[in-house]
Write a structure and sequence with these properties.
Elements (H helix, E strand, L loop, with lengths): L1 H14 L11 E4 L28 E4 L15 E3 L1 H5 L6 H7 L1 H4 L11 E4 L2 E2 L14 E7 L15 E6 L3 E13 L6 E12 L2 E12 L2 E2 L13 H6 L5 E3 L1 E14 L5 E20 L2 E25 L2 E19 L5 E24 L2 E22 L2 E23 L10 E11 L7 E11 L4 E12 L3 H5 L3 E10 L4 E9 L8 E12 L7 E17 L6 H6 L4 E3 L5 E5 L3 E21 L54 E18 L7 E2 L15 E11 L2 E10 L2 E3 L7 E3 L2 E11 L4 H6 L6 E8 L8 E2 L11 H4 L5 E9 L1
Parallel strand pairs: 4-7, 24-28
Antiparallel strand pairs: 1-2, 3-6, 4-5, 6-7, 8-9, 8-39, 9-10, 10-13, 11-12, 13-14, 14-15, 15-16, 16-17, 17-18, 18-19, 19-20, 20-21, 21-22, 22-25, 23-24, 25-26, 26-29, 27-28, 29-30, 30-31, 30-32, 32-33, 33-36, 34-35, 35-38, 36-37, 37-39
């Protein structure tokens, strides 16, 4: 009786201070067989099938969630625990997101931008706050569909990734890596020290880095210049042209996050980087020994700050940002003169978000999220060519408001409906750019959770977007000796290109429809299946100048310069508007993974979860004030039990497969010009038409400190019709990337023999394992010079060795 009474008091008290690192629901069972019947506690509530084997005199405490997980009715499409994160063998959040790209890519079919990032269920000032966080500091990763973004004051155009961090974590790390292609000709090296401390009242993250890449010249790749009439002249200058320029990058990054009180946090991130580049454009006055050069320097300073907290039951956040990007480029001319291009861009802004429950509806709480924002952009450039100076001064101020309202329609817990949970989210946005007419957007999303394992989503969005100010007004930049394939003659030639801005671009109108399904079959633990259908239609899209096919040249004859024999001499590649773009696709896939050999928690002192509900801020009752994540049993300065890199002892295997099928992809350049069907012979880019099929495979195994991952990508080819040399065929391409890594901290015999290796990890990466190249041929079977492997993929197979040590 005393044991049971003590447990009934001690366990809830413990829950207020300790939340353990496990994502599975766990139970703490305390025997009370000797309790007299007349002293039994109040009657227990009705028990479901999960508790049928528990005696009535036992106390059961459950906690299915970690503090910092999202509190939303929309099911996560993927979740990674510590073992799953360790199985990727990455060094920071930026690398982890790159590895998770197939799972985090937007299901709206519009692009591949970075997902929206949350930390412990809260907004952050910017990606810089989490970019360099090591994987050992992360307890859990959740990936949600785009509709969840509405609840946090963002538009529903990117998926949401939530990182749940560990508290009381400290790490000093040094990472050194070097790599080179198996064909030689280039070396890349990098060194990156870092420091992270997560404590009771906040976290501090410091990073620095230096990365150097050597130059790769045309003469260092086997190019068949005889395949084109202009090849002889090009071959003579191969040693004076670079395929990949040389560069040196220096960077330093700092983030500090502090808890102002139990529910209010503040953070600041500052980053500075400088990159020096040098490339070769071809023979100069003195021939190959005196090549034309282009060298430049870019400097970037960026900063973000944010404060967020609770106001009653409402979550609020305020953030601001400032960035300054400066660039200077010098380009040699055959005459001996040097062109100069300078640009400077300042961006700044801020936003304030308030979200919470407006009132209790018939099927649950009605939630509102409202955001007010302002952003400013200033861009100045100066282009000096042959004594002629062109200057550009651009600016844009963009105030705006965004809001979303989520209304539950059905919920069995409220005795409204018995077919699952159904909710409707309405959103709207208004922006008033200083250099454009007002932009208005709205959307509607239906989320239907039929069961805890099966959910459906339907959404429609109508958006307006203005072109970027550099698309509108960047100063012209003229580049000589650019290698280009000319469809009209079927030859590769060297031309002069002009890039910059086009002040006559129009605002883009977008209409998107999405239908999605997410299913975790209850009979197969660890399996998640999703399928999305997207149909997008846009008007007046702003695009870079497309591939110069006969159709494009007919639409933009004033952009092309030819000599009397029809040889292409120059091309104006400044942006253009397409009248209409329509596409639709189906993307389906599965993610399947399991851990094995894990040490199972047995109670509060051994890593099991604590009891309790949710705090008003959405975090669990034991969320620490400063670290913002769950308090980890045994997770002190070394990132949890089981080794520096491996997390909990045991192993993990995982595989994901995603298949995208494009159903339609059509472009109308302008009225009066035939519509382009990118799936059937047309193209707007140098990479050919649209590939109908895209397959993405990723899988890995991690056990006892050893890990291996394989990622593969296949996209089907396309054909571009027309041109004097007939159709241009872009073949299928399948690439494989392989990664081996070893956590030496889980090899005690080795670290005892060589103590210096303690806390180390070795990683060997091989990108493009089989050195695959897309084969591009004309009607005669000839590979145009501009599409030879040395041009389209100069690196080819690339091997990199990395050593990382933590202290």
């Amino acid at each position: 009786m005393l044991l049971a009474a003590s447990a009934s008091l001690a366990v809830p008290a413990y829950a207020e201070t300790e939340v353990m690192p496990t994502s599975a629901a766990a139970a703490i069972v305390v025997a009370a067989d000797d309790q007299p019947a007349d002293q039994a506690g109040p009657a227990s509530p009705a028990r479901g099938p999960d508790f049928d084997d528990i005696d009535g005199d036992e106390i059961v405490v459950t906690a299915p969630r970690l503090a910092g997980q999202l509190d939303t009715n929309i099911k996560a499409e993927a979740e990674l625990d510590e073992a799953a994160i360790a199985s990727y063998g990455v060094s920071n959040v930026a690398e982890l997101l790159e590895a998770l790209a197939p799972q985090t890519r937007s299901g709206r079919g519009r692009g591949s931008g970075r997902p929206i990032i949350l930390v412990n269920g809260r907004r952050i000032g910017g990606f810089g706050e989490v970019r360099n966080l090591p994987p050992e500091a992360i307890a859990k990763v959740e990936v949600f569909p785009e509709e969840v973004a509405l609840q946090y004051g963002y538009s529903a155009d990117e998926r949401v990734v939530n990182f749940v961090l560990k508290p009381n974590f400290r790490q000093i790390a040094v990472e050194v890596e070097g790599g080179l292609p198996t064909q030689g000709g280039r070396f890349q090296g990098e060194i990156e020290p870092s420091f992270l401390m997560i404590g009771e009242n906040g976290r501090l993250n410091l990073n620095a880095g230096w990365e150097s890449k050597s130059m790769l010249r045309e003469s260092e790749r086997r190019l068949d210049y005889a395949s084109d009439a202009a090849g002889q002249a090009l071959a003579a200058g191969a040693a004076a042209r670079s395929l990949l320029g040389a560069s040196d990058e220096y960077r330093i990054d700092a983030t500090i996050q502090r808890s102002l009180n139990k529910v209010t946090d503040a953070s600041l991130n500052v980053r500075f980087d400088q990159t020096d580049t040098r490339s070769l454009l071809g023979p100069g006055i003195g021939g190959v020994t005196d090549p034309l050069e282009r060298d430049g320097r870019s400097r970037n300073l960026s900063s973000t700050a944010s404060v967020n907290g609770m106001l009653g039951n409402w979550r609020w956040s305020v953030s601001g940002n400032y960035a300054d990007a400066d660039q200077r480029t010098f380009t040699d001319r055959i005459s001996g003169a040097r062109d100069r291009f300078d640009s400077s861009q300042q961006s700044f802004g801020g936003n304030a978000n308030l979200s919470g429950t407006v009132t209790e509806g018939w099927a649950g709480p009605i939630r509102l999220s409202a955001t007010g924002s302002f952003s400013g952009l200033r861009f100045d450039s100066r282009s000096e060519r042959s004594g002629a100076v062109t200057t550009t001064n651009l600016s844009r101020d963009l105030p705006g408001v965004f809001g979303s309202l989520t209304v539950p329609l059905l919920d069995p817990e409220y005795q409204v409906g018995n077919i699952g949970r159904l909710s409707l989210t309405l959103s709207g946005q208004y922006q008033d750019p200083s250099d454009f007419a007002a932009l208005k957007s709205w959307g509607a999303n239906l989320n239907w959770g039929l069961t805890s394992n099966l959910s459906l989503i339907a959404s429609f969005n109508q958006d307006e977007a203005a072109p970027g100010i550099q698309q509108l007004g960047a100063a012209p930049l003229v580049t000589p000796a650019v290698t280009y394939y000319d469809f009209a003659t079927g030859q590769t030639v060297q031309i002069t290109t002009t890039t910059g801005g086009n002040p006559f671009l129009l605002a883009e109108q977008r209409r998107d429809l999405k239908l999605g399904l997410n299913w975790s079959p209850p009979m197969v633990e660890g399996l998640n299946f999703s399928v999305n259908y997207n149909r997008n239609k846009s008007f007046d899209t702003s695009n870079g100048f497309p591939l110069l096919t006969p159709e494009i040249e007919a639409a933009f004859p004033d952009r092309v310069t030819r000599d009397a024999n029809g040889v292409l001499l120059a091309l104006d590649q400044r942006p253009v508007n397409f009248d209409r773009v329509e596409n639709s696709q189906i993307r389906w896939g599965l993610n399947f993974g399991k851990s094995f050999g894990q040490q199972q928690p047995r109670g509060p002192g051994s890593g099991g979860p604590a009891a309790g509900g949710r705090r008003p801020d959405g975090a669990g009752p034991g969320a620490p004030r400063g670290g913002g994540g769950p308090r980890m049993g045994g997770g002190g300065g070394r990132g949890g039990p089981g080794g520096m890199f491996g997390g909990p002892q045991g192993g993990r295997w995982q595989v994901s497969l995603y298949h995208t099928i494009k159903l339609t992809d059509k472009v109308l350049i302008r009225p009066g010009v035939p519509e382009l069907d990118l799936l059937n012979g047309s193209a707007t880019g140098n990479g050919g038409g649209s590939n109908r099929h895209l397959l993405e495979l990723d899988g890995g195994l991690f056990n006892k400190g050893m890990g291996v991952r394989l990622s593969a990508k296949y996209d089907s080819g396309s054909t571009v019709t027309g041109g004097s040399a007939g159709d241009l065929k872009f073949g299928d391409l399948a690439t494989f990337n392989l990664r081996f890594f070893m956590d030496l901290n889980q090899k005690p015999k080795l670290t005892e023999a060589v103590p210096f290796l303690k806390g180390s990890r070795l990683r060997l990466s091989v990108d493009n394992l089989f050195d695959a190249q897309r084969k591009i041929t004309d009607a005669t079977g000839r590979v145009p010079l501009n599409y030879q492997p040395g041009y389209i993929d100069p690196l080819g197979r690339y091997i990199e060795l990395e050593w990382r040590k933590t202290f």
